[in-house]
Amino acid sequence: MMRMTEIKHLKDLTGKREFALVVRDADLVSAALRQALAEAGPEERPGLERALEIVAATGGADDDQLCARWFRDRLAAAGFTGDIGSIAALKALRQSERGLSLLTAVRLQKAAVAHPE
After folding, report:
1. CA–CA separation, 3 vs 33, rounded Å?
2. Does residue 61 contact residue 69 with C-beta atoms inside 8 Å?
C-alpha cells in the first residue's frame, strides 16, 4: 500500500505544505515470501521463515518510525556519524538531500530523536 502522509503543522514561508511519501509495501513482501515458502524445499524454509518474521516485525512501524529510519539511513549514507540531534546532523542531511526544507529536516530529526534504534 502506498499513501501520502502530510507532515503536520509545517508550512514554509510561501504557505505551501510539506509532504512526505511513506511507502508501505510490507504486505506485498509478505505475500511474496509466503508464496516462496509454500513452494520452498526443506533447505530454503528456515531462511524464508526468518525473512517473514523480520517483515512482520518491521511492517508495523508507524509514520514517525519510518521517517526516523529514513533520517538515520540518509545520514549514514552521507557518512555522518555524530549526534543525530545536532545542528551538524541537520546540515549533513540538507547537504545530502538538497531539496529538503529546513522545516521538514527538523521534523524528521525530531522523529529520529523520539524513536531511537
Report:
1. 23
2. yes
User: Angle at CA 64, nearest 5°, toward 106 and 26?
Assistant: 135
Label the pairing between strands 2-11 and 17-23: antiparallel
Based on its alpha-carbon atoms, the radius of gyration of the chain, rounded to whole angstroms, reads 18
The reported pTM is 0.61
Length of the chain as a residue count:
117
Place of cell 521517517: 67
Show the cell assigned to 31. Answer: 505475500
- Start-to-end CA distance of the chain, whole Å, equals 24
Q: How far apart are CA 99 and CA 78, in angstroms?
A: 15
Degrees, nearest 5: CA angle 11-72-18: 15
The H or E element that residue 50 is part of is helix 45-58
pLDDT tens-digit map of 10-43: 444 445 555 555 556 777 888 888 999 999 999 9
